[in-house]
Amino acid sequence: MLAPEPIAVRRRDTRPVLLLTGALLLALGLAVAGWAAGTTVLVTLVRMLVLVAGILAAIAGLGRVARGVRGKPVDVVFWLGMTWLVLILGAAALAPLLPLGNADDSVAGLTSPIFAAPGGIGAEHPLGTNNYGLDVLARAVFGARTSILVALMAVLIGTTVGGLVGMVSGFVRGTTDRIVGILSNALLAVPPLILLIALGTVLDPSIRSIAFALSLLTIPSMVRLARANTITVAEREFVLAARALGAGRVRLLLREVLPNVVLPVLSLAVVMISVLVVAEASLSFLGIGIEQPAPTWGNMIAEGQGGVMEDHPYIVVVPGICLFLTVFSFNLLGEKAQKRWDPRAAKL
Amino acid sequence: MTTPSVPDLLEVTDLRTVFHTARGDVRAVDGVSFRLAAGETLGLVGESGSGKSVLGRTVMGLISSGPTTTVTGSVRIGGHDVHALKPSARRRLWGPEVAMVFQDPMTSLNPVKRVGTHLTETLRRHLHCSRTEATERAVDLLRQVGIPEPARRLRQYPHELSGGMRQRVVIATALACDPRLLIADEPTTALDVTVQKQILDLLGSLVAERDMAMLLVSHDLGAVAGRTDRVQVMYAGRTVESGATRPVFAAPEHPYTEALLASIPNLAHPPHTVLRAIEGNPPDMARPPLGCRFAPRCGRAAAGCTDELPLLVGVPGSAGVTGREVACHHPVGLSAPLEGNRHGR
Q1: Is A237 close to B108, i.e. CB distance below 8 A?
Q2: What's the mean pLDDT in B95-122?
Q3: Residue B7 domain-assigned?
Q4: Contact B112 A260 (CB under 8 A)
Q5: Average pLDDT, chain A
Q6: What region, left, alpha or beta, does residue A120 occupy, with left being phi > 0 and alpha being psi -120 to 50 degrees?
Q7: Were B30 and a residue from B237, B240, B322, B324 both cysteine, which residue would form a disulfide, CB within 3.0 to 4.6 Å?
Q8: Which of residues 85-104 of B touch A (CB under 8 A)?
Q9: With the C-alpha atoms ordered A132, A133, A136, A139, is the resulting torsion angle positive or negative?
Q10: Total of domains in chain B
């Protein structure tokens, strides 16, 4: 009888070693990062470098701990990103219920200190106040609400309209297809920022109209993706087989083509969310998006203009980090989705 | 001549399918006629590009006249002239009257739909059954096509099944609405040899059980030989020989049929016998040769063959009426040219 041979494990990769070194690395990294964030000893540039190095060390340590616990490599960056997305989406959704400070009432802000320094957890203004005495943490959370809502609405409109138009034009072909092609190429030919500025002068700066304007950016690429996928799916024999069983055009499109086109379109939609979060921030930074005092990450960053940032860096750093982490996390999610739902891999 | 009391289920008369392409008109099917009664199986054989599959699809009405296609002649299924019907009326024939089994079970099932959904959707649309009725019928259908554990298979996706199982599912969907005519378009080409036999046996027993008519399109003479009542050999869009399967294969009249049969490897031959392939390729259907289309590749071709297109005429047999027809100026079994196959010019 053959007994299964134990698989040799390298000594430095055993579970206790992984847990110990991982925890040490994590603690050390966090300590270095914390010290760098608070210290005044170093020059700003060096402080930033030390901070980043500390964070990277902490992530590497966390990776080792996770590997020790799960027994196999874990994509820690991805899971950190997903944690951030859950946190920020949860906070954005529940913002009115959370015990937050004054986000946009500038009259009530008159009684609060302006440019109060971040007080940390438990303080009245954990992340400080801006020049109207409005609470930066509250503004960051309510800003997330606006930014993500606008991006989600725009992607929803763009995916639905673009996806349907692209599917129909790829399925019907002929004249319809040519007209759709000309229109979507025309839309792609206009530089996006100029299109948005032009729309911004015409439309009133409400969440709805900005979502509409941004959705115009997503429609052409959605049309193209949906059309290309529809054409390859419509050629497959199962569509002919369904037709040979008496299915009409609408049924073929909805029951045979749509389920095969939805996944690649959705994975592009996830990537689009992060593009649109940035686009909305750019518009609001330029002052043609959501207007003050209503907060978005874009107009919060704009508050740092004119020398404010040099004296009160948190005014820019807080919305900047929120923006960076959100876009980064959505990109990670989109990348995973595309890898998982790649139409080339879904060939049965 | 006596007209039969029961009209034939399928009646194809002088069917032509012409595709208008940039290179000119391609006559994929060029004047084909045949009849098929309930309970009968007709084999349609020929090499790739001989127009068999286009013929099958034109018979069904999946290919019909349009901007790039012209279909002339007539196809009558159960008394309905398929190509004269409005598209919506034609769609109602697909399923209850005529259904098709496709070549490749890997691509003819939708990868994102469960096996059960393929079946129940069709059932509910055509037979208007309730959800539970449809599921019961689906289980029953899967059992009929020989799938073990049908209730569990219903919930599986196509990729979870083997090729043979998938082709059984394809057959089950085609049979869902009890069609009177089944068109099997190379149903075994994509399968393993051992599975091929099972699928052909299944189709044969289903035809017998349900008294269906079946049109078996195949390039595999072996598949057609044992399982069809009649056979029609196609070359370059035309019928070159037709008749009862056994005599056609036992004593082919047309040199093409003879060459096709000779190109099958035979286990009785000594090892390393050179396989007798047919030289050359089928003609370019945008520019078919003037006379007999097989003449350029034919060993028996004589001077007249390249000038005049031979017509399909009855072969006189010992018993008189044989139903055997051949389109050749110099048939294999006969020394004298057949009367009546020349155009009266």
Answers
A1: yes
A2: 88
A3: no
A4: yes
A5: 84
A6: left
A7: B237
A8: 88, 91-95, 99-100, 102-104
A9: negative
A10: 1
Range(s) of the domain holding residue B162? 108-177
pTM for this prediction: 0.78
Judged by a CB distance cut-off of 8 A, whether residue A266 touches chain B is no
Nearest neighbour of B158 by CB, restricted to A259, A346, A348: A348
**CA terminus-to-terminus distance, chain A:** 40
Question: B59, B183 in Cβ contact below 8 A?
Answer: yes
pLDDT of residue A347: 45
A256 DSSP 8-state letter: I
Mutation for testing the A interface, residue in B110, B115, B185 having most A CBs under 10 Å: B110
Indicate if ipTM > 0.85: no
Q: Are B84 and B99 in contact (CB under 8 A)?
A: no
Measured CA distances, B34 to A18, B75, B238, B241, B313 (Å): 78, 10, 12, 12, 13
Give A75-96 pLDDT, tens digit per residue.
888 999 999 999 999 988 888 8
What digits encode the pLDDT tens for the residues A295-326? Answer: 888 888 888 887 777 778 888 888 898 999 99
pLDDT digits (tens, 9 = 90+) for A143-191: 898 888 999 999 999 999 999 999 999 998 889 899 999 999 898 888 8
Instruction: Establish if B116 belongs to a structural domain.
Output: yes
Query: A258 near A266, Cβ under 8 Å?
Result: no
Give B-chain residues touching A246 at CB under 8 angstroms: 91-95, 122, 125-126
Does the beta-carbon distance from B113 to A243 stay under 8 Å?
A: no
Chain A residue numbers touching B174 (CB-CB < 8 A)? 245
For residue B123, is it within any domain? Answer: yes
The three-point CA angle A31-A35-A37 to 5° equals 120
Using only C-alpha atoms, chain B has a radius of gyration, in whole angstroms, of: 21
Whether B295 maps to a domain, the answer reads no
